[in-house]
Amino acid sequence: MVNHDLHLARYVTIAADIAERIVRGEYQEGQKIFGRSTLAGKYSVSPETIRRALTLLQEVGIVDVVPGIGVVVKSVSAAQKYLDDFDQRMVLTGIHEKLHELLKERDRVNGEISRLLEDLLQHTYHLESRLNKIEDWKVLPDSILVGKTLAQSRLNESKVLAIVRKGQGDIVDPAPDSRILAGDIITVYGHLNASDNEGLIRV
């Protein structure tokens, strides 16, 4: 049985249907089948579509289109061979269409995965920023920290990442005995308690 579910040209499926009717014995070899107008009405298509279907059948030796007589069945065996080949084409067409659909779905899923990964990275970054905030604090001249080492201060608990000192540049990962001077910019990883930031100003 010919399957017309795939997106083939209408004249191709009509040609296959006529070939199938010949194989089933509805049309015998040497028999004249309906004219173009009758076939056009039967299949609800234009005469041009029927002409293309009959031309296809004539090219593969199934029918003869004889001027003044009409369309005559020529070979049942040629019709059977055409149907066998047609079934194979249908299988291949089905595979191609399914593959095309799957590739489109894969691209859609990959696009959605990329968008979700971007959202995940963005939200993870914001969460990390909130949980482990990096802050800069300036040491004022009247701060109780002036003259103390990091070990003597409570800043060590907040993980001092760097000390920026005017004229000296950055002191990255300063040692516990590094002394705090007025005007220093102290970069800390985390949050300072109120008792820790006395005499400091956020920058």
Description:
This protein is α+β, with helices and mostly antiparallel strands and 203 residues long. It contains four helices and seven strands, in the order αααββαβββββ. A five-stranded antiparallel beta sheet has the order 5-4-6-3-7, with no helix packed on it. The longest helix is centred in the middle third of the chain and has 56 residues, at 76-131. The radius of gyration is 42 Å and the shape is rod-shaped. It starts with 9 loop residues before the first helix and ends with a strand.
Structural class: alpha+beta
Between the first and last Cα atoms, what is the distance in angstroms?
81 Å
| Net shape | rod-shaped
Uncertain ranges:
1-7
Computed Rg: 42 Å
Helix content: 40-55%
Count, helices: 4
Q: What is the H/E order? A: HHHEEHEEEEE
Number of strands: 7
Largest sheet features: 5 strands, antiparallel
The neighbouring-strand order within the major sheet is: 5-4-6-3-7
> Would you tell me the overall average pLDDT?
81
Strand content: 15-25%
Please outline the helices and strands.
Layout: H1 10-24, H2 36-43, H3 47-59, E1 63-66, E2 70-73, H4 76-131, E3 134-139, E4 160-165, E5 169-172, E6 185-189, E7 200-202
Antiparallel strand pairs: 1-2, 3-6, 3-7, 4-5, 4-6
Distinctive features:
single chain, 203 residues, alpha+beta, five-stranded antiparallel sheet, 4 helices, 7 strands, 16% strand, rod-shaped
